Every structure is written in C-alpha cells, then in structure tokens.
Amino acid sequence: MSLKETLLEDMKTAMREKDTLKKNAIQMVRSAILQVEKDSRITLDDDSIIDVIGKEVKKRRDSLSEFEKSGRQDLIDNLKTEIDVLLKYLPEQLSEEELENIIKETIQETGASSMKDIGKVMQAVMPKVKGRADGKIINQIIKKILA
Asked: Which domains does the chain carry?
C-alpha cells in the first residue's frame, strides 16, 4: 500500500474513532500533497510524499516555538499531538550520534575545514539523511564540529 493510501485509510479510521486531532493532521498533510501535485502537475511518489510530510512537521515545530513564547498551552498540546501523528509516516529519525558520524564522514569527503564550508557540508549531508533528520539539528552539529 502506498503512503498516500495509508494516509487515506488512517484518516478514515480517525474519523470513525472521532479523533479530530489525528484527522485534522492527516487532512492537512493530504491537502499539502494535493497542492504540490496540482502546482507541479505530477503524481507524487512515496519519497516525494515523505518530503512534503517533513516540511509539514518542520512548519509545526517552528510554530511550536512561537506558541511557547506566547504561552498558549492549548495550542502547544495540539501541535505536539499533530507532530507525533505525522512523525509516524516519516522514516525513523536518526539519533544525534548517528548524525554526528554521518557529518564527520561528509566533512572528510568534502575537505571542509572552516565555518565557511557549512553550505558545502549541508549540501552533501542532506541527501544522505533525507527525511530522517531536521536541517536545524544538522546545522548545529556541523557548526559544533567545524568550530
């Protein structure tokens, strides 16, 4: 079963169980997928759908920090639930240790030696960890290693 079909079935299940948070999270991702398909006039495969889901998770994480600043606990709880729902559709996330190893290998491959080379390292690392790590975390680890 494709990821798109899985999302549809899970949405139907959430509707039957009257789990509105899960249903809304899946609906928003499905609409984002549909929007990308309409804009690009293509049908997305599972890898592309994982990219869209990753972007949706990133949006929610960014919003989470804003809600924490404003003290909106109700919205924070909802967003955390949505993030948990969406993470189930992404490949298993890499641990910080695994990321460090990948980044160290990449730094050796690219010959990066200073902070000026962050872009080069990021460009080489991102395809290796596609959908399995957040870009902000990768950037922080690269800065820590190159510093």
From this structure: 3-87 (1.10.1510.10), 96-146 (1.10.10.410)
